[in-house]
């Protein structure tokens, strides 16, 4: 009798605390790899005060729990990752349940903050650091080159530093960053890129949010583009929200989303003039990379010889490193919603910097055409970086592109 009561209690408890909310299926049209996926929760009747959403994949052998993470906001989403390769024309089935607790524990990507940097790491392996403190140039160099609000270092999974700041040839270069070069406020030119001109700069203002989870961790930072030439005092020409998100894919590759949203408070907005540098996402590579040990490949099969000024959905930058594989790299992806997508690029020629051929890459949405930002309107650019050791081929880059381009088709039952 006691045994029957125990069985009844267990079954009753599972029913009470495992309420099924929805079933859905995902159809994979094109091959994807390590793909973050979101589903809208707006139509699902749940209250997280009553339990946690738990995601299960339905297979021939039963149900297996899939790590997931809820993102709230104007539209609530449930995020999870299709790890590894998802084959073309395949179908996956899932069920969402409301349970009393999440039963699957995974290492999170952690945020670590000191007086200078907000850093991301997983299992004590560093991924990247965002420098929010003002950084002065080397001693003896004009302090006009000081800057805050940039990413450096970015590490490969094997611990190699892939970015560089304040190189002697360009003290205004700062790892991963994206100031605008030729701009006009009314009839006055303002350069936020070439700091030596003293016309403007970009600075960190404050953090808007920080988040940690089993699927992604990241932060939002407010960066201000400051115009030094206003009539009365320095003015904010653009407010920028930089959203950096690291996906918890696996320990041999980092997948980082870099989303920037611009809004000008100026009465007449601001004109971003067409130029070969400006905005987007810029990358000054490690000093170890040069013309003899660094390569470029784009989605249009262009190389470092002919890629500059061309358009691409993705650009693969690799170079020699001290990991066991002998190489490391970053795959840069431009989202289809970006202005001028496929997006034009700036890639330094082979003879850059007195023939050394140092590596510089940038997606430049104003490379060939002006872009007017109207007053108090939001403009967003989305990028993804896939950071790896070893070599990556075009097929793999294309799978990462498919993972970034769109969410897969989701059908609720």
Describe the structure.
The protein has 2 domains: 2-105, Sandwich (Immunoglobulin-like), CATH 2.60.40; 109-409, Distorted Sandwich (Beta-galactosidase, Chain A, domain 5), CATH 2.70.98. With 413 residues, the chain is mainly β. A hairpin with a 6-residue loop joins strand 23 and strand 24. It has an 8-stranded antiparallel beta sheet, covered by helices on one side. A 5-stranded antiparallel beta sheet has the order 4-3-7-1-29. Strands 12-20-26-25-22 form a 5-stranded antiparallel beta sheet, with no helix packed on it. It has helices at 2-16, 394-405, and strands spanning 18-28, 32-40, 52-59, 62-66, 69-71, 77-86, 90-99, 109-113, 117-122, 125-131, 150-154, 176-177, 183-185, 188-190, 200-211, 216-227, 235-250, 253-263, 270-272, 281-284, 294-298, 311-312, 314-320, 327-334, 343-347, 360-363, 371-373, 378-389, 409-412. The radius of gyration is 23 Å and the shape is globular. It contains 2 helices and 29 strands. The protein is 7% helix and 47% strand.
């Amino acid at each position: 009798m006691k045994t029957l009561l125990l069985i009844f209690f267990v079954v009753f408890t599972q029913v009470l605390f495992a309420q099924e909310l929805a079933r859905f299926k995902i159809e994979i049209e094109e091959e994807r790899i390590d793909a973050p996926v979101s589903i809208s929760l707006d139509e699902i009747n749940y209250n997280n005060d009553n339990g946690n959403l738990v995601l299960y994949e339905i297979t021939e052998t039963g149900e297996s729990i899939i790590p997931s993470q809820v993102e709230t906001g104007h539209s609530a989403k449930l995020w999870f990752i299709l790890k590894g390769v998802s084959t073309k024309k395949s179908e996956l089935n899932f069920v969402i349940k409301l349970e009393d607790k999440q039963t699957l524990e995974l290492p999170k990507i952690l945020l670590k903050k000191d007086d200078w940097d907000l850093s991301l790491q997983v299992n004590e392996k560093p991924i990247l650091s965002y420098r929010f403190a003002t950084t002065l140039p080397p001693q003896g160099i004009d302090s006009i080159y000081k800057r805050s609000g940039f990413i450096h270092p970015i590490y490969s999974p094997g611990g190699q530093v892939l970015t560089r700041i304040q190189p002697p040839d360009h003290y205004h270069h700062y790892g991963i960053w994206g100031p605008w070069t030729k701009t006009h406020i009314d009839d006055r030119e303002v350069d936020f890129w070439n700091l030596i001109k003293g016309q403007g700069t970009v600075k960190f203002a404050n953090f808007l949010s920080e988040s940690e989870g089993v699927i992604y961790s990241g932060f939002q930072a407010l960066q201000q583009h400051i115009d030094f030439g206003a009539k009365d005092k320095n003015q904010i020409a653009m407010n920028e929200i930089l959203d950096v998100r690291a996906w918890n894919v696996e320990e041999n590759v980092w997948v980082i989303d870099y989303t920037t949203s611009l809004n000008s408070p100026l009465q007449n907005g601001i004109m971003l003039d067409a130029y070969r540098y400006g905005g987007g996402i810029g990358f000054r590579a490690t000093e170890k990379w040069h013309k003899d040990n660094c390569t470029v490949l784009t989605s249009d099969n262009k190389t470092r010889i002919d890629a500059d000024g061309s358009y691409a959905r993705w650009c693969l930058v690799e170079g020699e490193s001290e990991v066991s594989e002998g190489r490391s790299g970053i795959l840069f992806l431009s989202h289809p919603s970006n202005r001028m997508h496929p997006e034009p690029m700036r890639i330094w020629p082979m003879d850059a910097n007195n023939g050394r051929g140092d590596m510089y890459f940038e997606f430049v949405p104003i490379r060939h055409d002006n872009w007017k930002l109207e007053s108090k309107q939001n403009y967003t650019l989305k990028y993804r970086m896939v950071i790896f050791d070893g070599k990556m081929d075009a097929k793999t880059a294309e799978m990462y592109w498919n993972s970034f381009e769109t969410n897969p088709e989701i059908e609720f039952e």
